[in-house]
Design brief:
400 residues, 18 helices, globular, three-stranded antiparallel β-sheet, seven-stranded parallel β-sheet
Length: 400
Amino acid sequence: MPLTFDTYDNCSFGCVYCFSQYRRGIGSGKEDYFAKQVRSVNPQRVRDIFTLKKESQFSEYIRQRRTIQWGGLSDQFDGYERKHGVTLELLKLFKELDYPISFSTKSTWWLQDKRYTDLFKGQKNWNCKFSIITADPEMAAKIEKGVATPQERIDAIRRFSELDAGGATLRLRPFIIGVSSKTYKTLIREAAAAGATAMTTEFFCLERRSVNIARDNYKAISDAIGHDIVDFYVRNSAGSGYLRLKRAIKEPYVRKMRDLCHEVGMRFYVSDAHFKEACDNACCCGLPDDWKISRCQFSEALQLCRRNGRVTFSEIGGDADFLEFPWVAAEGFNTGSVERRAKFAGMTMRDYLRWLWNNPKAGQSPYAMFEGVMLPDGLDEHGDVIYRWNQSRTFVEGGE
């Protein structure tokens, strides 16, 4: 789902693990961000974009009615929505258009407000992910400040499931060892009992380059888990700067979460690049496989490689007509340095994805991103790299 948007440019919650502070808490807007000043999108502009009155980078994606992700750096149902109601106005537009949406939220109040529930009722192409990282209310209060209790969010899953919409998903992200690891089995069972049909997880990553911004947040997490989380990540992560825990540390948790989800009848997904091959399909946000998402993406290639033992770019590249726009002009995409912009200036976004595919040493290539689960093995008739399944790198059996 390459089209993501937020209703508001801030969030009323105070989750200490929130990654949006590293995007919004810098530059000229940081004072307004930390002061909790808020602006919303322009509903008329959104209407113009989605009714195709205004051409944009995403017009072809919208024309094909591919699913969008609502809620990336903010919660569209938070306290600001309760005050301003812009999400409600936009929901009426998307209901009118019958447009497919995947929502992410921690909020619960809107599921007791008839104005919202009437719009969701029976809307089969609206799926909602409910973020809960622990079943322990005391731990949650320390980590997710200003958010409803875990039990209230489980109840929200139940209320949503009763609306007969597009399904409820448990969003156990970020999975924090020392917080989530203590109660995740209980959480999965309770979510399934409440009607959740899927679960998606991703392990917490520590942004060390912004430690001055995050100092108080990391201290709050450290106090909650009883040890220094920065030291833990420095010792147990590869690389520097953006610290991602090593695969070996995550594997036991991923195995148990996957087995338990399947035991209770839930689909299982990993948004983390590590063990994304354990997903039940290529949409790590937990959507069923028949929803219309982008198939020109490396997670789709990973699924094909797992099932068939090998994969070529042509198997995903055919679903790329909405990516025929200049890479250098991509909205919301980090095009990096002047040198980088000059290198890729003549490419479309599809060309760029193909370049990554054919350069295994690049940091975002399938080989590097999935840490060797997809192994380069020669070239096909188009001169593109063939990737084969590397069973030695994962517990997930090929052919599943």
